[in-house]
Amino acid sequence: LGVAVSHDQSRFATGGMDKIIKVWDMQTFSRQGTLAGHEEAVSIVLFGKDENQLVSAGTENVIKIWNLRTFEIQESLKSHADSILTIRLLKDQTKIISTSRDKKIKVWHLETYKPLKTMTNNSPCQCLALHPTEEQFITVSEDQHVKIWDLVGQIEDYFLIDDLWYDAEFWTDPRFLLGAGRGKKISMWDIASKTLVREWKCEDHVKNLIITNHSIIASLRDGTLRVFDEKHEFLPIKLHERSVHCMRITGDGQKLISSGGDNTVKLWSIPNKFENSLE
Fold first, then answer.
1. Chain segment 121-130, per-residue pLDDT in tens
2. Which residue from 59, 82, 165, 169 has the least number of CB within 10 angstroms?
3. Is the separation of the CB atoms in 28 and 21 below 8 Å?
């Protein structure tokens, strides 16, 4: 289900329905180790302060921190009361933000393992986007409200969208927010004016979004990848035989790792320029 790439791009990790996390060598695709300790499916994995710390979570209410030198658990964070929906790592790599079906948003310290702040929303937050300055972050909840928070917990503003989003990211110009999900479209919103600026149509539910080089990379429930830029849309690329569960891009922007419902993990090279645009 979950995929994560280490900060130094030397390894990646996958989490699955079998409750197991596997760590892989990026160059050889050989397995470096296995982490067992979750009681339910692992849908979220991400690297922490360095390539030797991994954070994981899923359908249970526990976030686990792992030491990848010893492949042993460091800590279990048990403050949430329901399944974890999303986790994001702050740029200082010492803190994470988590959302849960318990409607709580928590900021955690990865060295003390303590929650620094707990915020409460009216509905579970399906996705979370960090502003590039990290002075604010945005949550998108199941009641279709987009809310703007700061790390102290204050809600700066909010607006209502017309779709159930599965993922959200700031555009290269952070005045704009992109989101996508069940509505089979990618939407761009002007945050200040709370207005819809543009939409890109897709053939199925959009599961993941990546913004890179002024382009939008979207994975769909039908197993395909769609790429858009400000002027073009490109032919679909088949990634998996079933839904794309997760995709991550390497720090150099050259490779993409995807996991799918066909129980495969694939490594892709990203071209400098996508071809075969649809006019």
1. 999 999 999 9
2. 82
3. no
User: What are 204-218's pLDDT values in tens digits?
Assistant: 999 999 998 789 999
The first and second tokens of residue 205, run together, are 């539910």
CA angle 224, 268, 90 (to 5 degrees): 90
| Residue 110, token pair as written in the block | 């990865």
> Residue 181: what residue type?
G
Query: Which pLDDT score is estimated for 272?
Result: 58
Based on its alpha-carbon atoms, the radius of gyration of the chain, rounded to whole angstroms, reads 18
Q: How far apart are CA 20 and CA 238, in angstroms?
A: 27
254-261 contacts at long range (C-beta below 8 A, 24 or more positions apart)? 256/210, 256/217, 257/3, 257/5, 257/12, 258/3, 258/219, 258/225, 259/1, 259/2, 259/3, 259/14, 260/223, 261/223
The answer to whether 149 and 169 have CB atoms below 8 angstroms apart is no
Average pLDDT over residues 114-141: 92
Give the model confidence (pLDDT) of 51-71 as tens digits. Answer: 999 999 989 999 999 999 999
In this structure, is the dihedral angle defined by the CA atoms of residues 201, 202, 206 and 211, taken in order, positive or negative? negative
Closest CA to 219 of 196, 199, 242: 242
Q: Which of 91, 95, 138, 144 is nearest to 122 (CA)?
A: 144
- CA separation for the pair 57, 198 (Å, rounded): 34
Q: Which H or E run includes 217?
A: strand 215-220
- 129-140 average pLDDT score: 91
Q: Model's pTM, two decimal places?
A: 0.91
> With 80 as the cut, is the pLDDT of residue 82 above it?
yes
On average, the pLDDT of the chain sits at 92
> What are the tokens at 27?
């160059």
